[in-house]
Amino acid sequence: MIEIDNVVAGYTAEVDILKGMTLQVQRGEIVTLLGPNGCGKSTLLKSIAGFLRPRSGSIVLESKDVSQVPVHQKIQKLGLGFVPQTENVFSSLTIRENMQVGGHFMSDADCKQRMQELCTLYPVLERKFNAPASSMSGGERQILALARALMPRPRLLLLDEPSAGLSPKMLQEVFKAIVQVRDKEGVTILMVEQNAMEALRMSDRAYVLSMGTVALTGAANSLMSDPQVRELYLGGRAA
Ligand SMILES: Nc1ncnc2c1ncn2[C@@H]1O[C@H](COP(=O)(O)OP(=O)(O)OP(=O)(O)O)[C@@H](O)[C@H]1O
């Protein structure tokens, strides 16, 4: 689905944040990026999305090199969806209006049909359809952010810390919504998470990043049961 090969990227000419990042995500997988603060997880997502162009290396999406393609083209034409960590819904707009923003490039009829599909998948959206997003809980807002990104039927969804700021109960609801979209719509998911153990439980594989490169990778199950990984990256918690 996506192959990232030796990507180098940074925000200023002097400093590389990604220092030769290589990873792959297969179609239909849920893959999580873990690692300490500042290791480059969000920067990698921004590079894949097209907010930041790599200095070198390649990003190949469904056999097409998209390294230099800007974000709006990836969303409109190449089947990419992106949910940023913050400011991911418009609080003063209703749920319907937020979803319409996601359907900006779609015809009115298709946009309407897609809103219905997503309201069936996530009933909370239908219940509050004409209420402002400011009336939603943190978890509900994350589900709305997910739905907005899903409007144009992306094939690859990038999620930056979907559980940020959520209670354990809301986290479970949001993770369930993520698994649902993979299971019911076949969307491939690459996400950044700080809640490492919970994220591994719902992932197929994970990459642990360190200082702009991949330190470790493996199946989620084997990472969770590796004592050294637990000690170093999962706070020493038992699986
Ligand atoms: N817009 C920016 N301009 C300049 N430097 C930035 C910018 N965004 C991030 N950085 C720097 O890039 C490095 C990697 O940041 P990034 O946000 O990718 O880390 P992260 O692994 O996602 O961290 P966290 O878990 O804290 O969100 C950090 O040193 C950060 O200060």
UniProtKB/TrEMBL annotation:
Keywords: Amino-acid transport, ATP-binding, Cell membrane, Membrane, Nucleotide-binding, Transport. GO terms for molecular function: ATP binding; ATP hydrolysis activity; branched-chain amino acid transmembrane transporter activity. One of its GO terms (biological process) is L-amino acid transport. It holds the Pfam family ABC_tran. It comes from the Bacteria. Residues 2-236 form the ABC transporter domain. Signal peptide: none annotated. InterPro entries: AAA+_ATPase, ABC_transporter-like_ATP-bd, BCAA_Transport_ATP-bd_LivF, P-loop_NTPase. Belongs to the ABC transporter superfamily. PANTHER family: BRANCHED-CHAIN AMINO ACID TRANSPORT ATP-BINDING PROTEIN LIVF-RELATED, HIGH-AFFINITY BRANCHED-CHAIN AMINO ACID TRANSPORT ATP-BINDING PROTEIN LIVF. This is ABC transporter ATP-binding protein. It comes from Comamonas terrigena.
